[in-house]
Amino acid sequence: MEKLFKRQLLVLLCSAGLLGGCASTYEDGLSALQDGEPAKAQEIWLELAEEGNVDAMYGIYDLASSRYNRVSDSDIEWLKKAADAGMAKAQYQYGLITFNDKQFSKGHQYIKQAATQGQPEAIKFVERYKPTLKTFLSAEKGNRVAEYNLGVHYANGTQGLNKNSKEAASWYLKSAKQGYASAQNNLGIMYEEGKGVTKNATEAVKWYQKAADQGLASAQFNLGDLYEKGRGVRRDYRKAVELYMKAAEQGLAGAQNQLGNLYLDGKGVKKDGKKALEWHTKSANQNLAAGQYNLGQSYYFGYAGTVDKKAAAYWFKQAALQGHVSAQGNMGVLYSNGEGVEQNYQQAVKWLTKAAEQGNSNAQYVLGNRYYNGEGVNKSLSSAAKWYGKAAKQGHVDAQFKYANSYAFGDGNTKSNRTAFTWYKKAAEQGHTTSQYNLGVMYDNGEGTAEDNQAAFNWYSKAAKSDHASAQNNLGLLYKKGQGVKKNYAWAAYWFAKSAKQGNKLAKNNIKDALAKLNKFKTNASTVNILSATNTNSNVVKKLSKGTYVYSLGSNETWTEVLDINNYTLGYVKSDQLVKNVPVKPKKTAQVSYDPYPAKPRAKAGFVTCNTKCTNGNCYRTYSDGRKVHFQAKQKWNAFTSQFEWDSGGC
């Protein structure tokens, strides 16, 4: 107490200027710092530090670190002196700096000294790094295995280390340069994924190759994957097969699975479903979810020659239990259909929901069906529409159609022809036949879009060519009325017949008016074959007896395209086997031609001349030099007639 009193008195006397020759104290530096004069504090502490004041030594470092946020070598040297003088917090700070500078042994010694004095941060550090201390010390000496292990710990955030990809890559590089295969492989992964280093597939190939050359299966697999995908190296399926085979023969499940895929697709190796099954089985037996899923696919579709739905269900379930999304979706479908398992809509909904919630579009679509039909779940049109929408937005064509329906009919969504039109169009553009027909109807009637007969004709045509009966009937009507296309009763009859043959009652009625405008013939031979094409070797569609009446859709000297109203049969007969029964009437233009190419034009010196013959955009051209070309004309808008016309271009 007496000493403390004397010191306090000394400070007061010096402060009051009543005592001459007073030296500055550490507290003077603190006062200057509090007064906003860090430079003065630094000056005071530097003078005291040179006199051996430990607090001042630490203060110099602390000021640079906390106030200026920059530390010089001189600042660190003062910190070391404070640490060497026994100050615990200086020992910890200096030890930490040294440890982070990869001088692990030296740094740990200082931190351990601080911990011995009870410094809290030092105690925590010693405990935290206890599991990896030996590894750090070995790595400091250049042990490549220790360097690799540090990389693993930093990459995964294990053994008390914070996850740090940059540190991981740094340690992998040290080990890889010493030829350690596992480090080379992991460094390749870092370059491939761009973790801790700049993404660089070429560098990934380099390091994978080094490890693969040492026989490391995982590196062989990773390198094979880059060859298969053509990343960092030119795509080479054969090289991929070679590398996968090496890894697969060492038992690597991923390589076995990929090898099975290449056998299945015939890439880099002869297509072989049995070989694919063999490798997928090896992979599946090692519990690889992707291998189990692919094995299920092989059994379901019979890629190896035998369909086995029970085996497919078994392997799909094994993969599904591991969270494989597509396998979960497939289990939902199998339970829905009772394939390989007993039909169970509750189980179907369970698996479909798991997959759907992870974004599997097919599962979302099928789950929508379950809600729409109330199978395995309470019927809910709004839930059905929700799942249809999720799948539709991922491009699932059937879901796009169902989602459009939900707006067209107000099933689970507010009725909106415009929104329905949008989704029908998306599905139609992917080739969905009924959507193409519906889109044609909307253009035809101006529902959800402006009325457009030309667009209606185009979409009806697409659906009609896919045998959509209603589209065929509506297409016939457009030809009959001359809406969106030039009026043509032969084409009208053709499409009405196609539709009527499928049982469409409207088409059966509509065809009557079209037939009244066509030429009627009767057969003049004892047996007349209606053929599928203008070729005597083509299939016989129907045999006609003598005196049977048919309608002509188009003809030339050799062949006539006919319609037999009985069963609405369409095909071709020899023209000389028919006798005209009624006066000439309009024909379906250019349906048949023995030689579709026009005659060769007369040559003109210095010019290229040609003759061109087109039917609905299908063009044949003969040049003056004898060349013959078959091509498709382009559609061109005619502003005067307000419709599209075929443009075959010049010679």
Explain what this protein looks like in three dimensions.
This is Sel1 repeat family protein. It comes from Photobacterium swingsii. InterPro entries: ISR_Activator (IPR052748), Sel1-like (IPR006597), TPR-like_helical_dom_sf (IPR011990). With 651 residues, the protein is an alpha+beta fold. Among the domains are: 432-517, Alpha Horseshoe (Serine Threonine Protein Phosphatase 5, Tetratricopeptide repeat), CATH 1.25.40; 519-580, SH3 Domains (SH3 type barrels, Roll), CATH 2.30.30.40; 597-651, no CATH class. The chain is built from 30 helices and 12 strands. The strands form 4 sheets. The chain has a 5-stranded antiparallel beta sheet with strand order 6-5-4-1-7, covered by helices on one side. Helix 16 (253-265) runs antiparallel to helix 17 (273-285). The longest helix has 14 residues, at 2-15. The protein is elongated, with a radius of gyration of 42 Å. The model is unreliable at 1-11, 15-21, 590-594 and 637-643 (pLDDT under 50).
